[in-house]
Amino acid sequence: MATSTYLSNPSLTVNSVDLSDQTTSATLTVKYDALESTAFGGTSRVYVAGLGDHELTVELFMSYAATETYATLAALVGTATTVVMKPTSSAVGATNPSFTLTGTYLEALPVIDATLGELSSISLTFRGGVYAAAIA
């Protein structure tokens, strides 16, 4: 049985700024609305893809330094931007594809989420946008 594994160390770029050093987890879900296209005479339901409804959820350490988490994201709340995810920071290729959401929407930014004695981290959700995958 063939198996393939990799050590999770994703690369995250938001609005052309690399936030990989602040990222602790990421989940990119590619989803399309299911539209029924069953016609008369059909014996089973048939579906086709409708509008894309993609979502990227990321956990980041909060940093207020220049070009870090807050500085990069504060101006993006309520706007559309581009995010790029890769499984690793290596060059894009067949074993390290690049996944892009162009025009994805950032609805909210928790500006402070702190607990005494713990590293501050935030959870973000980017919704929608045009999805593309590349291997070159």
Could you explain how this protein is built, in words?
By secondary structure, the protein is mainly beta. The chain has one domain (11-134): Beta Barrel (Elongation Factor Tu (Ef-tu), domain 3), CATH 2.40.30. Helix content is 4%, strand content 44%. It contains one helix and ten strands; from the N terminus they run ββββββαββββ. Strands 1, 2, 3, 6, 7, 8, 9 and 10 form an eight-stranded antiparallel beta sheet that branches. A two-stranded antiparallel sheet has the order 4-5. The protein is globular, with a radius of gyration of 18 Å. The mean pLDDT is 92.
Task: Give me a quick take on this structure.
The protein has one helix at 69-73, and strands spanning 11-14, 17-18, 23-29, 32-36, 47-52, 55-61, 79-86, 98-106, 121-127, 130-134. It has one domain (11-134): Elongation Factor Tu (Ef-tu), domain 3 (Beta Barrel), CATH 2.40.30.
